[in-house]
Write a structure and sequence with these properties.
15% strand; magnesium; hydrolase; Ribosomal Protein L15, Chain: K, domain 2; single chain; 9 helices; Four Helix Bundle (Hemerythrin (Met), subunit A); alpha+beta
């Protein structure tokens, strides 16, 4: 159980939610685990299948407290809300801003600032942790270049220019990605990003990690009442979760990239976990995918101090925290969307 931004996150599995007066009560096997007053909650997010009592759902609906259900792994199931009040205004604001490219750029540049800032500090961490195993001067030069690009991003109000700056930053960062692979160099090398299909072991893992992160982000956005398919940087395309791709930009490097690098450098994954198809596509075996998913779920349980909120939360709740902050910005409660800036 974790309370964050007036949202109660129930992350322990098999917990049943019930109502007692003006309180939500958490029960597991008839044992009371906790009791939280409902008067200052905006929403309750439950990760599991056990459910909630009709009385609690009715209480929350009457008082505009959203009740959101996810699977244990974080996939969005449904959202119980009462009469449409705040939610419809939130989505209308999202749609209106998305239609305006200048306004979209002002929001999107914060996502990209977060992405480039985090990429810079991934490189800086490498110079601190492995000074004898990498070319420190090259990493420092790349870090300085990313700082220059960040200043340009902060002054940018044009989507096309912003995409160009993001591309420059990606090239600078990707040039050093292979240098961050410190083990199993014969079997794991990265020269450039290949997507459909991935053409090597590293790209196969990156693609899978990005897919998982995008799904987690989409679930978090749906949970706060936003439309995961209407973005600001990524424009509308049928079937594409554009807003999820927007917000996950700042988490790509620090969560997905670092996760993949750790699987290689700690020798959790090895060359026997992959196979190549006739068209050149490299895929993970079924057992490898299970191993990857287990490690991913374990990573989501690790704690980190949220840089904006100053609170210690599980990595798995970071997408939900960012979704809540984005919703607050769109409602006018915050002057600017605060990206996740990691050091």
């Amino acid at each position: 159980m974790r309370k964050l931004l007036n949202t109660l996150f129930v992350t322990q599995p098999d917990v049943y939610l019930s109502l007692d007066g003006d309180n939500v009560v958490l029960l597991k096997n008839q044992e009371k685990l906790g009791r939280v007053p409902l008067h200052n909650l905006e929403s309750i997010a439950s990760f599991g299948y056990t459910g909630a009592s009709p009385a609690l759902m009715g209480y929350c609906s009457e008082r505009n407290i959203s009740l959101v259900f996810y699977t244990k792994s974080g996939r969005f199931l449904n959202r119980v809300i009462g009469r449409s009040r705040g939610n419809v205004h939130l989505r209308k604001k999202q749609y209106n801003l998305s239609e305006n490219e200048t306004e979209s750029a002002l929001i999107a540049r914060n996502f990209i600032t977060g992405k480039v800032f985090n990429a810079k500090w991934i490189l800086e961490r490498m110079t601190r942790d492995y000074p004898l195993r990498i070319d420190v001067e090259k990493f420092k030069q790349a870090s300085q270049h990313l700082t220059i690009i960040m200043h340009e991003i902060r002054a940018c109000s044009d989507l096309e220019v912003l995409r160009g700056l993001e591309g420059q930053a990606a090239i600078t960062y990707n040039k050093l990605f292979n240098k961050m692979i410190l083990q199993q160099k014969d079997d794991f090398s990265f020269y450039n990003r290949t997507r459909r299909p991935p053409l090597d072991n590293v790209n196969a893992m990156l693609s899978f990690a990005y897919t998982l992160l995008a799904n987690d982000m989409a679930s978090a956005l749906e949970g706060v009442g936003l439309d995961a398919y209407v973005g600001f940087l990524h424009r509308d395309r049928p079937g594409r979760i554009s807003l999820a791709l927007d917000v996950m930009e700042e988490l790509r490097g620090i969560f997905a990239d670092k996760f993949v690098l750790s699987l290689i450098n700690k020798k959790v994954m090895n060359k026997s976990d992959f196979f190549k198809k006739e068209n050149g596509a490299v895929l993970m075996s079924e057992e490898a995918r299970k191993k990857f998913l287990t490690a991913w779920q374990n990573k989501k349980q690790e704690k980190i101090t949220h840089p904006y909120l100053g609170e210690k939360i599980a990595w798995g709740l970071v997408p939900h925290a960012q979704a809540l902050l984005l919703a607050r910005f769109l409602r006018g409660d915050l002057d600017e969307y605060p990206p996740f800036l990691w050091k």
